[in-house]
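Workshop exercise sheet. Pairs work together: one partner reads the sequence aloud, the other fills in the structure field after running the prediction. Swap roles for the next sheet.
Pair: D.N. / O.F.
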Amino acid sequence: MTTNNSSYPTYFESFDYKQMLNDYPLGDEVLNRFKTMSKADLKALQNMRFMKVVARAWQIPFYQRIWCAAGLVPEDIKSLDDIEKLPLISKSDIMDSVERHPPIGDFHGLDDIPVEQRPPLVFHTTSGTTGTPQPLLFGPKSREIQSLLVARSYRFMGLKAGSTIQSCYGHGMINGGHYIREAVTHYTNSMFLSAGTGVETRSVQQVNLMKTFGVNVLVGFVDYIKRLSDVAKEEGIKPGEDISIDMIIGHLGMESREAIANAWGNAEKQPELFDWYGVGDTGTIAAEGPDHDGMHVWEDCQYLEILDPDSNQVVSPGDKGNMVVTCLYKDDVYPIIRFNTHDITEEVTSENKMGLPFMRIRGFMGRSDNMLKLRGINIYPQGVGPMMDERDEFLGEYICRAVRDEAGRDEMIVQVEVSTPVEKRDSIIDEYKALLKRKIGIEVQVELVGEGELTPLTQVDVRQKPIRLIDNRFK
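Structure field:
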């Protein structure tokens, strides 16, 4: 007797696609549905989805192990109000799961599903820039909702119908470029150019693609997007004339919007910039809207807590803390409940001008696990660059180096790319020191270098997220 191993669901047969589109609105329906929704109704929707996700998590060895170790039983979690009883998880817990149960861990919930009944999977990894790459697994339902949320964000920002989008997100094993491509091709009518990073498509080729195909929207990490404008000029291509960009959708954080807009615009026209936030595991969490007043958290899909990095307690509204995320839609593969991103932000407490019931956040303000504490001052390296934007000769590239002297005293050296000729740099270095002391709160050392000299250290030409900190204190 033989078993028919060819009988299993295809991708779109494994969930109710039409119901998903109804449950998670897109385009104009976002405002139509949520502008009339009260905070109480939103909380009820979140609670219903949260309890489904928790029920699924209790079936998975990973969560059973962590929650039982905390003394919890299923009856302890009766509603979203009980979420603080649940322990936080982070990448280290996922990697511990992988080490215990190689090669893909036991956090996904596939092990108790017979092979012939398993849904198709989308499999990626993180970049591995901080160690062994982390497996990322997506079921069809949650993968499509993740993609839809990217497109929801783009269309909320004002993406024009029939746009031509060039993506500078990486491909290969990492998730970024693939998931953005799926979002644009499944949930917008834009033409999509999957150029990728400068490693996948040389920067010179990228700017020529933009000119040839009339790209009007750029998406990716803004450090590289800004670098592309310099490459265009080197090739004799004029941003704002030969390439006319309407929108730049990136991860702006604390970067200078004016510098990026100027790089791709001219006196008559400049692109409109939009920020959004998400991580590989969770997908899109929040997006800036046309109001440009913080980023709206997609709270029908994501429950966001902002917690003190030391105590893990909820901070007061407007105070900085770690973003801890619960995905309210991932009740299929790899539920994510109280995932500590270690990314720092703060809540925007002013009235929501869009009339939406959602909380808003400032955006990515640095990482708590990449923070330096010098003489009682917390320093987030990602926030140092924007401090120097008022200097005309600052070229936007920098790196922070933490060092420890023979007496055991910690210092930070900020290396900065400037346009100033080498013979004149000594005359302005004290101005940089004074500027950073005023904005950081303590004195740091400064070294001024020329354009491109830091590229081997920041790796801005080959990495999606440039290196901003080199810690030499413990070597």
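Discussion prompt: Residues 11 and 378 are 47 Å apart (CA to CA). What would you look at next?
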